[in-house]
Amino acid sequence: MTSHNHLHFYVGTYTDAPSTSKGIAQISLDPATGELTRNEDLTALRNPSYLTTTDNGLYSFSETSQEESAALQFSSKLGNVFLPIAGDYPCHIDIKFPYLAVANYGSGNVSVYLLDDNGRPIKAIADLYEDGCGPNSNRQASPHAHQVTFLTHNNQLAVVDLGSDCIRFYQFDDENGQHTFQLTQTITMPAGAGPRHMVFNHNETRAYVVCELSETLVVLTLNDGTWQITHQCELLPEVENGEAASAIRLSKNEQYLYVSCRAQNIISSFDVSGEEPKPLHTYDCHGQFPRDFVISKDGQWLVVANQHSNNIVSFHRNTETGEITPTGYQSLVDAPVCLVEAGN
User: Residue 285 pLDDT > 80, yes or no?
Assistant: First the structure.
């Protein structure tokens, strides 16, 4: 099978020592076997820990402090664009034209940028910050914005704050060139849960939140325009809590949900086709500290980035049962922490 039939993935990495990564790496997957191949790096960038793509290009940042020049990077055929980030240790990014939002974990704020017609970030137009803290003194002494997500069906931006155990929804508008973001709802999560990431169903009437510190899954349901917690369960019942749950993905048919548990080196799966999530299986991630994973766009593959063992592993995914099976293939990348499939 020729390389043009392969699936291609961008890999975000940590580049600081002892890592030897230089920036955004690339791998490809052979759909006949699941074999992974390391390709030439895309671009050099310090600590590009999260990535996202649009038809216009690839977006990332340097996860550093402002003093160390935390910056947003946009790469396209038209060249690269860099803009400073007024926040410490950015960790997540999302886009809904003409806006781009960055969650800054260290400083707890969200930086919002305006994009031009070619998708290039022009300038920062909003800085969102809400004070707060949680009971875990080591991890929740201040706000830690960990994810930003623009909703598809309305003009809302959701912010997941690990530090203050909150999920916030902002309504945004553009009237006569005045870009406004107004806080409309704050969901108080269980104390000490440390919400990290969330995914929505297609209709955006239900959301699933992975809580890093409590290692739980929390379900939110939209009722009469207001989000409410409707269910919560442990990711790994009867297993010692490692306070390190990480990535969460929902299958395209909305039947299966997967979560990575870094301390236990496990991918946990759930059937979410009913009212409440039902635990299905747990899978060894074939590495250490599964920071991120992605389901391929065709649904046939699940690819895991194991940060501490410096390897990326492929699993074949059964689209009917949701089960995943290791292919036995891996690709070596130092400190891989984010995976994004290239292409439309």
Answer: yes
